[in-house]
Amino acid sequence: MLSVTKLSKTFPGVRALSDVDFTAHAGQVHALVGENGAGKSTLIKVLTGVYRPDAGEVSYDGAPVRFATPLQAQQAGISTIYQEVNLVPLMSVARNLFLGREPRGRLGLIDFGRLHREADEALRRLGIRVDVRRPLRELGVGAQQMVALARAVAVDARVVIMDEPTSSLEPREVATLFGVIRMLRERGVAVIYVSHRMDELYEICDAVTVLRDGRVVHTGPLAGLDRLRLVSMMLGREIGEVRTEGLTKFSGSHTATAEPVLRADNLTVRHRLNDVSLALRPGEVVGLGGLLGSGRSETAKAIAGALPTDAGRVSVAGTPVRTGSTAAAIRAGISLLPEDRKAEGIVPGLSVRENIALAALPALSRFGLVDDSRIDRVVETFMKRLRIKAAGPHQKVGELSGGNQQKVLLARWLALHPKVLLLDEPTRGIDVGAKAEVQALIDELADDGLAVLLISSDTEELIEGSDRVIVLKEGVVVRELTGDDVTEDGLMRALASAPAGGHDG
Amino acid sequence: MTAHTEEAGMPVATDDPAGDGPPRASRSDRLGAFAQQHGALVTLVIAMVAASLSFDTFLTGDNLENMALSSAFLAVVALGMTFVIVTGGIDLSVGSLFALGGVLAAWGSQYGSAVALLLPLAVCGLIGLVNGLLIARVRLAPFIVTLAAMLGARGLLLAITDEGSTTYLVDKHSFFATLGQGSLLGVGVPVWITVALFVLGAVVLRRSRFGQYVYAVGGNEDAGALMGVPVAGTKVAVYTLSGLCAGLAGALNAAWLVSGVTILGSGMELEAISAVVIGGTLLSGGFGFISGSLVGVLLLKVIQNVINQIGSLDSAYQQVVSGAFLAVVVVAQTWLGRRRRVL
Amino acid sequence: MADLALARGTLDRARLLRLLQEYGVYAGVAVLLLFNFAFTPYFLSTENFRTQAVQVAPVLVVALGMALAIGTEGVDLSVGSVMALSTSLLSLYLGYGPWIAALIAVLGGIVVGVANGALVAFVGVQPIVATLALMVAGRGLALVLLPQLKDVRDPGMAALGSGDVLGVPYLVLIAAALALLVAFVVRRTTFGRQVLAIGDSRPAARLAGLPVSRVLVVVYVCSGALAAVAGILATARLSASDPTSLGTLMELSAITAVVVGGTPLSGGRVRIGGTVAGAVLIQLLTTTLIKHDLPPSWTQIAQAVVIVLAVYAARERGRR
């Protein structure tokens, strides 16, 4: 149906795709997998006309094509659902659904009666019931994603590309999505499915193509392909290695018996957190488990003063901390490594040096004047200690790799000599080597006596890295795993259990 | 196909995955939405009632006619501005284009009414087109591009009027002059033209596919592009439209004054933006309506009229009031918008 | 990954563009100077340089504040109105002596700056819109206070307007001192670093515990105060207060100077040296056109073209 041969795409300085062959067949769900930076997104963007290939050919229905814009690809029957919902939040559901192909009546004006009726029907067919007149932004993320899906299949799509469509869906919605995918498959649509979640791949996909460093390393049917083999192809490591080393670099246990350094009591944020309490002792790593939207990041942000709370107290070493102020939290010794490194962490246009010194500036200056020699000393210390790979302290942080950006952020916080470190997805989106280094570093910091709160959607990382795991569900603490209970199995069972009291949803 | 999916027993997704109650609009929420949509209209009615109770001279035929006429020109400028602001942009060149349009129309009127009308449209439309191309294709910031165009158009105006020393006159008996001076059923022709343009503009923005594109570009440009909205084309179109509107308003104004006055239009961009924003259009784009802009213009003109009626007050107070009003509306908008996002 | 590609890539063009951004303004000044040395009669005289420098001083002072505002990814459109307000206040209170009057004028600028800053920092209004409101209201207020042009006859102001030290006019000395002061603040103080960080990535700055709101308010206060100072300087030079026309289109000249000087509109970077050169460049351009008998209309058109070109050259890596 849709295939590419010998495709290459080079961005100045980076070879994103080289000699890629890939074919999606009608009536087949084809998984496209690979680590970050393997070239999946680039391939999709070439297929949908966002990028033009430097070499190679895209053919569709047997004939070579060259889409200049996403619109052309769409008109030819190739629809794409992106990871983040790509709709217009202020417009109504129906208008979003039919944007650019509204039913028109007399004088070429839009026929709103028909528009709403047809939109409603299209959504009902997918098993979604919403008021199509409402602005899209009033819907939940999952429902928005389903509108995007409805939009993609409503046009007579013959190829549907889904880029991590489940990343913001609840299990129930994932089931709906899979129902739609099966329906598409039976209609003879070619589906290209990008995901990191192994279970999903094996549940829904027929074939798989593995990309690594811009090259195809494997392509073929999925059934019969061993999971471990698939992982090892993605990582480019041998199976034995994966099995014996495990996937993380955590040592596992720390002994912590001292009094808690951080206490958070009854944190409540309307619609997000309900009466969350937790305590961290110096030298221990506490995991915060839960599904997407369970309030993990919100808990961390509330403790760090980045999210105003409706109720609750935070204290460090017995001294109460004013909530809702990052500055107060930082003064008290609480540091937060935010989830969205690019948007909320780094200051891309400033140098490594400036980024590391940013939060500690008041301490590193006298009468508001910056003390350059002291900054240089601090920066040098941390660049060495964290093994930050940069051309030098004056390179812009925006030019570094994800892993090194993360290390710069860690250095920024460590320069403040914090007592409590809150790490929200510290290894997301960074390459395997840097991931191991960051994990080892977290261990080391806990050994040095820091209290660490670790949030990770990678269950393996969470389990291996944490001494205790506090499990959140719908903004409520449902279980605390300690000692021998800190296992993936234990975590799964906690997640599957009913919320422990108090929640009147 | 439908039957098939039902057989498959697909689970039904609702829009309420988190289970925290149906996200129905709360009462205060609806109040906020009402304030955003009709706040300007309510304020206008209150202001008119208060003004007519306070001043005998307010609710007279002459005064109303005057207000309608002077509103008409600003309203046409605000019409184009509404489209620009809904795409999330801004056009600071309209004041200069208004003046330039007037001068071109007066100069052109010596060659006939058609030239008088078409020349300003062509030139101002072209400048709007250049604005649009620089913004959409070269991706420069709208405010700086249109600020430059404001300067450039002012320069052009000076160049064709011997550095502002020549004022071209319009023949009082030409057809072109009747566009500004004439009246129909006791209402001035410019007012009729304005009303017609607003009806047309409202239909285009609400009911045409182009209108949907305008909202989509302002609401989420990247998503719009992926959904096949011609983003660059839409932007070019709205800036061209804004240029056309400003030029037309200038031409009508010249016909009304029967001369191309060179010193007009400075500060008009601010008035037009104020009117649009007061009318409920979000400056961040993606939301707004044509009728609101008309109400915004009328409100500004009523305030101006009231200040003039209070003879002791300097007319400069009008600027103070407009500025304060703009600030209040923008603060209210930001506050409403933020609250709704949180909920 | 694409970001990385873009950052590392386009090396040749990027380097050329960066060179243009960094040094283009100095090259422009040099070219215009050479052109004038060669083709403009009487250009190479002390008197001429004095005139040029005195004319550029107020624009430069405004541009310094504007550079700070643009550095935070904002802009201050109210500067022209603040100049008008400043000149009105100055002539109203001149009876109490020039120092007190100047102090009150600067205070007026600070008040406008606080209003701008509060709208931007606490309410979250876009800087363009917030300062637009103050631009309208500020000019109105200036006219309410002083409805028409008024001569300023004060020996102190006269001395400020025409006096000099070793041949260098006071106005120029003040502008130069302020430029050095702002450059020092940007480079060497925590406040300067915080301005840049906020302009580059506001969420990151907030999460890093920087006092974002306070820094923003201070930036707009600085901009307002500097514009008020520029208003005083301009009043002294003209020895008259003209709230109707003083400072009109000043926001445009100041933005041009800043942008031509290589400070990107997207924030995160402030170049004071470039801003000074940018103000000089615009001044030289105007002079060149006038000295060669081109009418003001052409000057305006030329300035418009220069702005567009400068913004084009300074166009940052992709939009947000």
Automatic annotation (TrEMBL), chain A:
One term under GO cellular component: plasma membrane
Entry-linked InterPro entries: AAA+_ATPase, ABC_carbohydrate_import_ATPase, ABC_transporter-like_ATP-bd, ABC_transporter-like_CS, P-loop_NTPase
Cell compartments where the protein resides: Cell membrane
Entry keyword Translocase: yes
Keyword vocabulary terms for this entry: ATP-binding, Cell membrane, Membrane, Nucleotide-binding, Repeat, Translocase, Transport
Alphabetized PROSITE patterns for the sequence: ABC_TRANSPORTER_1, ABC_TRANSPORTER_2
Keyword Transcription regulation assigned: no
Chief location category: membrane
Pfam families reported in the protein's UniProt record: ABC_tran
Protein's membrane topology: Peripheral membrane protein
Annotated ABC transporter domain residues: 2-238, 242-499
Molecular function per GO: ATP binding; ATP hydrolysis activity
Stored PANTHER family: CARBOHYDRATE TRANSPORT ATP-BINDING PROTEIN MG119-RELATED, GALACTOFURANOSE TRANSPORTER ATP-BINDING PROTEIN YTFR
Protein name: Sugar ABC transporter ATP-binding protein
Organism name: Streptomyces adustus
Organism ancestry: Bacteria, Bacillati, Actinomycetota, Actinomycetes, Kitasatosporales
Automatic annotation (TrEMBL), chain C:
Bilayer topology term: Multi-pass membrane protein
Name of the protein in question: ABC transporter permease
Example of a GO cellular component annotation carried by this entry: plasma membrane
Compartments where located: Cell membrane
Recorded superkingdom: Bacteria
Species name: Streptomyces adustus
Record keywords: Cell membrane, Membrane, Transmembrane, Transmembrane helix
Classification of source organism: Bacteria, Bacillati, Actinomycetota, Actinomycetes, Kitasatosporales
Primary location: membrane
GO molecular function ontology, one term from the record: transmembrane transporter activity
InterPro entries in alphabetical order: ABC_transp_permease
Transmembrane regions: 23-44, 56-79, 99-121, 128-146, 166-186, 207-234, 296-314
